Amino acid sequence: MMTLSNSLAHADVAHQLHPFTDARAFEQNGPLIIDHGQGIHVFDSTGKKYIEGMAGLWSVAVGFNEPRLAEAAYKQFQKLPYYHTFSAKSHEPSIKLSEKLAEMAPEGLNHVLYCSSGSEGNDTVVKLVWYYNNALGRREKKKFLARTNAYHGITMASGSLTGIAVDHKDFDLPILPVIHLTCPHFYREGTAGETEEQFTARLLKELEDTIAREGADTIAAFIGEPVMGAGGVLVPPKGYWESVEAICRKNDILIVADEVINGFGRLGTTFGAAKMGFTPDIMTVSKQITSSYMPLAAIVFSDAIYEAVADNSHKIGAFAHGFTAAGHPVATAVALENIAIIEERDLVGNAARLEAPFQSGLRAFADKPLVGEVRGVGLMAAVELVADKATKAKFSKSGQVGQIANRIAHEEGLILRAIGDTLALCPPLIVTEADVAEILRIMGVVLDRTAKEVAELGIA
Ligand code: PMP
């Protein structure tokens, strides 16, 4: 436990309410204050060095001290630190980034709308989709299909799309017409005796039955992370996304790929949808677009949506949506430089090349005590810890063992993320093979020490 010996920690406890933190426990333990970063490492205020095994919040592709991003920001700050994009005003960085995103996106997705966070992005997706359907006179076609354990953000609409119970509890969410379908995670959602193929068929039937029950003319869109992140790195079974796409197309339901984590190389492809075998109508991107050096999100959407939206804006007199910081010149300038670095250093290829050692190295831990499932794609992965490997029984107090592992990882110099009792890893895309080996070595130690401590404490 950290003692609150330093004044920064005291001030933090006194004044800052931290996201996704138990405030009372925080009063006792205080913060881990990160002071500076270098490559894949960050250093805390005592000088201790950590591998940032989560790339911050799944987001720092190019590492923690990329001078080219600092220079790109500084140059733009000097030239034009702020301008907006309302009322036909524009500026070069937002124009160039839009052109670049259209070039990178699947064919037919040529239009971009900006905001500053993934949550705002998915809120805007809801508004864009509703506006689109209203423009087409389909005023009933408004419901969203999402999945349990999905994470799409935390604002009113995006938080409603999110399918994680604790994110709804006591916030009076969801407030949208959203239907959460079964999460495509065979290990947890598959029933006894069911094969993975049968499981997939059951989920697809659930989708078809839901559409039949609700009526396709009431369902606007299906939103999903190609590979789910914050829900615990949940990888859908083979064929799942292709079939979801086919069912949605048959029923004229838009497909929204939430690429906020997957986008810009995380899965070893530029966007996650390609890796999972489907083509969306809309993508939400954020995080790795700027390596999170600046807040930025973009919604990249199809020509068909644009045409209807443009017509309607003409009829009404304006597309009456936008944020003060939409397409912020410094954020978009940093994004352009960040994407240039990703391309020049072939970081997408790096993720694809390191997928095998990273994923197979982690899967080698499957035989260790407490390890229920190891899963992941590209450079994102998770190790789920369980009370009983044979029955997959969870620990009676969810998250307790995850916190033990989290503390031990910190002691061993690795930042990971405990999602309940699942340990997530998502290192910066600049990792080398040697870095991956070091992450795996530390993970082995973390898992062994956690199992020992859990046994000593008699946790079940
Ligand atoms: N979508 C996904 C898939 C995410 O992982 C996140 C953030 N973890 C969001 C949306 C929300 O992004 P933000 O935190 O920037 O609002």
UniProtKB/TrEMBL annotation:
User: Does Ion transport count among this protein's keywords?
Assistant: no
Cofactor or coenzyme needed: pyridoxal 5'-phosphate
Molecular-function GO terms, alphabetical: adenosylmethionine-8-amino-7-oxononanoate transaminase activity; pyridoxal phosphate binding
Key words, A-Z: Aminotransferase, Pyridoxal phosphate, Transferase
The cross-references to InterPro entries, in alphabetical order and at most eight, read: Aminotrans_3, Aminotrans_3_PPA_site, PyrdxlP-dep_Trfase, PyrdxlP-dep_Trfase_major, PyrdxlP-dep_Trfase_small
Question: What start-end ranges are recorded for coiled-coil regions in this protein?
Answer: none
Highest taxon, organism lineage: Bacteria
Q: Which GO terms describe its biological process?
A: biotin biosynthetic process; gamma-aminobutyric acid metabolic process
Asked whether the UniProt record includes Transferase among its keywords, one would answer yes
The entry assigns this protein to a family as follows:
Belongs to the class-III pyridoxal-phosphate-dependent aminotransferase family.
Tell me what this protein is called: Aspartate aminotransferase family protein
Q: What is the lineage of its organism?
A: Bacteria, Pseudomonadati, Pseudomonadota, Alphaproteobacteria, Rhodobacterales
